[in-house]
Specification:
Distance between the termini: 76 Å
Number of domains: 3
CATH topology of the largest domain: D-Maltodextrin-Binding Protein, domain 2
Order of helices and strands: HEHHEHEHEHEHEHEHEEHHEEE
Largest sheet: 8 strands, mixed
Number of strands: 12
CATH superfamily of the largest domain: Periplasmic binding protein-like II
Strand content: 15-25%
Shape: globular
CATH architecture of the largest domain: 3-Layer(aba) Sandwich
């Protein structure tokens, strides 16, 4: 009987050591798998949208999202280098190229807003009554009115460059300043200098109470601003958390998250329109 008890005790000790040896690395791996590295635009960060949405996703899923807010161009390069798991960005053509080149699995539309031109209330270039965004930009250039460009290869910067090109203008000279900063800092500088700039509506609504600027041009169909989400291709990099990336993609496109996006407002205005509420192809 005593011998049997000793054997039983030794078996329990052995099993406990085996369980500890197995359980510890599994827990470590589980914790690693629960981290999702998200590269996104400064507009989703500056607007407050991510700090509104992500705690809900994290609480429900158990994942932890590490946000890197940069310009879309840099976010895409981080995806190409395998430094992140998933991208939430807003430069449709560049996103499609990213997927076509095998860096991303598939682009999914999530939401959209639009771009607007803001500036000093005196409107020195008189763009307020322009009939197109091209006319507004031509007036800024012809009057040599100060324009602040992000100059950072972001989605907003890419859109701005397209507008100059469609207006057949090469922006250069003292009136045109590229500062290589995010949208928030660009708005602040435009305010300090009484300059014009192009911004997404979401960031503008988050900053409008902090500056003495106003929207001076809006509504051109070319100012449509779609946001897409893309999981980085795990076949290129073995450490991509594609399971976590896909979990975030599914959640952001779910009815719950899309409704939360509708409810996210500043000054009574919706900052982003979810894809469910849009009939526009993105």
């Amino acid at each position: 009987m005593i011998f049997s008890n000793i054997i039983y005790a030794l078996i329990l000790i052995f099993l406990s050591h085996v369980a500890f040896a197995i359980d510890t690395p599994l827990k470590t791996l589980s914790n690693q798998d629960k981290i999702i590295r998200l590269a996104t635009t400064t507009s989703t960060e500056n607007s407050g949208l991510l700090s509104y949405l992500l705690p809900i996703f994290e609480g429900e899923s158990g994942y932890k999202v590490h946000v890197i807010a940069v310009g879309t161009g840099k976010a895409l390069r981080m995806g190409e280098d395998g430094d992140v798991d998933v991208l939430l960005v807003h430069a449709l053509q560049a996103e499609q190229t990213f997927v076509e080149n095998g860096y991303g699995l598939k682009r999914y539309p999530v939401m959209h807003n639009d771009f607007v031109v803001i500036g000093d209330t005196t409107d020195p270039a008189t763009i307020k009554n322009s009939t197109s965004i091209a006319m507004a930009f031509k007036k800024i250039q012809s009057s040599q009115s100060l324009f602040i460009s992000r100059g950072d290869d972001s989605g907003t910067h890419k859109k701005e460059i397209k507008i100059w090109q469609s207006s057949q203008i090469e922006p250069q000279g003292k009136w045109y300043r590229e500062i290589g900063q995010g949208m928030g800092k660009v708005i602040q500088m435009a305010d300090e200098l009484g300059a014009y700039t192009l911004t997404d509506r979401g960031t503008w609504l988050s900053y409008q109470d902090k500056v003495n600027l106003q929207i001076l041009y809006q509504g051109d169909v070319s100012l449509f601003n779609p946001y897409g989400i893309i999981a980085v291709n795990p076949e290129r990099y073995t450490d991509i958390n594609v399971v976590g990336a896909n979990a975030l993609i599914r959640w952001l496109r779910s009815k719950q998250a899309q409704q939360l996006i509708v409810q996210f407002k500043k000054h009574g205005q919706t900052l982003f329109v979810p894809v469910e509420a849009s009939s526009t192809t993105q």
